[in-house]
Design brief:
By secondary structure, the chain is of the alpha/beta class. It has a single domain (5-246), classed as TIM Barrel (Alpha-Beta Barrel), CATH 3.20.20.70. Helix content is 46%, strand content 15%. The chain has helices at residues 16-30, 46-53, 79-85, 95-100, 105-117, 130-134, 138-150, 155-160, 179-197, 199-204, 215-222, 239-246, and strands at 5-9, 36-40, 58-62, 89-92, 121-126, 162-165, 206-210, 229-232. α7 (138-150) crosses α9 (179-197). The chain is globular. The protein binds phosphoenolpyruvate (PEP). Phosphoenolpyruvate binds at residues 9, 11, 166, 171-172, 210-213, 231-235.
Length: 250
């Protein structure tokens, strides 16, 4: 039985002061959550979010990590830096990073290896663009993205990875995959993991859905057997809205 995990992706929103306010507002609303609750915040907000979340069930994550340990990489942040700042999770390979910042499956893999080595829990994003779904490439693409991202991890390390299946056409668009589409594609990802790492690993890995998930559609998505949680963008920016997603079972 996999424990669900609902993570907010604040993207480039909220100052440190606003992060404190949002986490403080969220704490009482999600205290009885049956799932793991994570907020992935801008790096400069990590310290404030961690301080505000202390003693609660809210965990804090970052939104990207560099793959080198240190050195002349102006503007970048290492996994050790994020960890010491208090992040427990990190999103890797979000489609916005792939689209705007040149992220590739190869660099996603490098970041995953660096983050896992430093003891961060990773949320790896995979997903197809609209035209790739229309052309029938979704299954091959998400399988390939997933297996490349995980290359070099041990089976035990793979068990701890969280995959976020995020159809690119559903992110921030209001378009949402149907419950069945999301369930089916997540099933494909799980089969790909099974093919390489075995059934035990595949049955353990948690796979989220992401893409315009919100209070109105969370129940249907979470009722699907393959869906182990959500990565939530827009609906994670208001405490009451995010809490309704987190409390999908109530
Ligand atoms: C995301 O940022 O990962 C995401 C799914 O965004 P939204 O919920 O706004 O579509």
């Amino acid at each position: 039985m996999r424990k669900a995990i609902i993570a907010g992706n604040w993207k480039m929103n909220k100052t440190p002061k606003e992060a404190t306010e949002l986490v403080n507002a969220l704490k009482p609303l999600v205290k009885d959550a049956v799932c793991d609750v994570v907020v992935c915040v801008p790096a400069v907000d990590i310290a404030n979010a961690v301080e505000a979340a202390a003693g609660s069930n809210i965990k804090v994550g970052a939104q990207n990590v560099h793959f080198m340990e240190s050195g002349a990489y102006t503007g970048e942040l290492s996994a050790a830096m994020l960890k010491e700042a208090g992040a427990e999770y990190v999103i890797i390979g979000h489609s916005e990073r792939r689209q705007y910042f040149g992220e590739t499956d190869f660099t996603v893999n490098k970041r995953v290896l660096a983050a896992v080595k430093a003891g961060l829990k990773v949320i790896v994003c995979v997903g197809e663009k609209k035209e790739e779904r229309v052309d029938g490439y979704t299954d091959a693409l998400v399988s390939y993205q997933t297996l490349i991202a995980l290359t070099g991890l041990t089976p035990d390390e793979v068990k701890d990875v969280i995959i976020a299946y995020e159809p690119v056409w559903a992110i921030g668009t209001g378009l949402v995959a149907t419950d069945e589409q999301a369930n089916e594609t997540i099933g494909v990802i799980r089969k790909a993991i099974e093919g390489k790492y075995g059934k035990d690993v595949a049955d353990t890995v948690r796979i989220q859905y992401g893409g315009s998930m919100k209070p109105a559609n969370v129940k249907g998505l979470m009722a699907q057997p393959e869906i182990d949680g959500g990565l939530i963008g827009g609906a994670s920016l208001k405490a009451d809205e995010f809490a309704l997603v987190v409390n999908y079972d109530k």
